[in-house]
Write a structure and sequence with these properties.
about 50% helix; alpha+beta; four-stranded antiparallel sheet; elongated
């Protein structure tokens, strides 16, 4: 074997070893994340069956002013709770959704730390305080259809199951750790699969046994590699540790969201009374794209109305609008064209991750989830087929394997560890384990020589 071939063999043995460790660490969490993710993908169909009586109404001749629906909702809300936002009907059969926040509520979606909210309810673009409730009202007769706690709606429950296993933020590190090592598993898997010479990389017809498992394991993992990158990257953007690093890198590189001008306020001078909900809705419809809107009322006399998109399935219609509470004059507007490249990528990637682009998105994610399950199962099938009785079954490292990677490979590894702190910490622990195993192996080798 010449030097070049031996170098390739050493690198392959190292990548195979790392691929094994990545699978060992990530598999349990990846299995849970995949199964809960598949459940979450079908949220639209499940919610359509569960909440048809709340979300939709029978269209009639004309709707009442939006204020009538808000007033009816306020009569059923707990005493002291304030209106967080209102989602007016977009389609003729849509119900009015009035969200109420408890005094001093905690916003579970606007930030990941669970910090206490100020006295005035927060105004996130998406999400609600943890104890918030939504009251559903018929826009034609202002009849209250019912109410539902935000945390009890299936989509929110399934999202929490997927990201936190129904636990608090202290458990989110597990999913982040799994996503970090799944990224390592993907990179090393592509390197191990990469065709060389006359190889095509495609599964060979008639392959049986461990070889057949290996070929399909590698092919399916690489075939859906782009989907894997999107899913893992978007998942890491809202993680605790890696998400903070990614947002810092975003801001340093000039890819932060367009800043809202400071000091925006409403003026009563030369204007009539304040806008009511119906007036604000009409202003929003004039300036906003043709999409369902979420309205947030001014928190004080000189505050402004805010409107943003309530439907994330059409990312190119994303907008943020703030307008005077008396005249309705727009004070700030940012549409799709104002978003940075990073903002556009996440605005598309996150709804794709959640399967919000329709049936094709759901079908692709179902295929992706099935391939992940196959990869996990086939990987362990190959492990037990390869493992000799009485051995740990670790892929063998050739001499000099740890010094064989190229400078580019080390640079990529350093970048991944810098962006994913849990990967760095766990990798350091893994290196200590490797040292222990190396000394143990050397001691056994010397004992056999004696």
């Amino acid at each position: 074997m010449d030097d070049a071939a031996f170098l390739i063999a050493r690198r392959k043995s190292l990548y195979w070893r790392i691929h094994f460790w990545a699978a060992l660490i990530a598999s349990p969490f990846a299995l849970l994340a995949t199964l809960t993710g598949i459940l979450y993908v079908f949220t639209p169909q499940i919610e359509a069956r569960l909440y048809q009586h709340l979300d939709h109404v029978v269209p009639q001749a004309s709707m009442l002013p939006l204020d009538a629906a808000v007033a009816a909702a306020e009569l059923t809300a707990p005493r002291g709770w304030a209106v967080q936002h209102v989602v007016p009907p977009f389609q003729q059969d849509d119900a009015v959704q009035v969200a109420f926040a408890p005094p001093g509520g905690v916003d579970e979606h606007a930030g990941h730390g669970g910090h206490a909210a100020p006295a005035t309810p927060p105004r996130p673009k998406f999400g609600l305080p943890a104890q918030a409730i939504i009251v559903y009202v018929n826009p034609y007769d202002a009849r209250v259809l019912g109410s539902l706690a935000s945390s009890e709606r299936f989509g929110n429950w399934a999202k929490k199951l997927h990201s936190r296993l129904l636990q608090n933020d202290g458990w989110r590190w597990m999913i982040e750790l799994a996503a970090s090592w799944l990224m390592v598993m993907l990179v090393t898997g592509v390197v191990l699969w990469w065709p060389r010479g006359a190889q095509s990389g495609l599964p060979k017809r008639g392959a049986r046994g461990r070889n057949g498992w290996r070929q399909w394991h590698a092919f399916l993992g690489v075939a859906l590699g782009i989907v894997s990158v999107v899913i893992l990257t978007t998942g890491l953007t809202w993680s605790q540790q890696a998400g903070g690093r990614i947002r810092t890198l975003r801001d340093v590189s000039g890819q932060a969201p367009p800043p809202v001008p400071r000091g925006l306020h409403s003026s009563e001078q030369g204007a009539g009374g304040p806008l009511d909900w119906q007036d604000a809705w009409q202003v929003a419809r004039i300036h906003a794209p043709a999409i369902a809107v979420q309205l947030t009322a001014p928190a004080s006399q000189d505050d402004v109305w805010r409107a943003t998109m309530a439907d994330r399935s059409q990312p190119t219609l994303r907008f943020d609008l703030q307008f005077d509470a008396y005249s309705g004059k727009p004070l700030y507007y940012a549409g799709w064209e104002a978003q940075t490249a990073f903002g556009k990528a996440t605005t598309i990637g996150i709804p794709f991750h959640r399967g919000e682009f329709g049936w094709w998105n759901q079908a692709l994610l179902l295929l992706f989830g099935a391939s992940v399950l196959f990869s996990l199962v086939s990987g362990w099938v190959m492990f037990f087929k390869r493992r000799l009785p009485g051995s740990l079954g670790l892929p063998k490292l050739l001499p000099g394997a740890w010094t064989s990677p190229s400078a580019l490979a080390w640079l990529l590894a350093a970048a991944m560890c810098a962006l994913m702190p849990l990967l760095l910490i766990s990798a350091c622990m893994l290196m200590l384990l490797e040292l222990v195993l190396a000394r143990w192996g050397a001691r056994i080798g010397r004992a056999r020589l004696r």
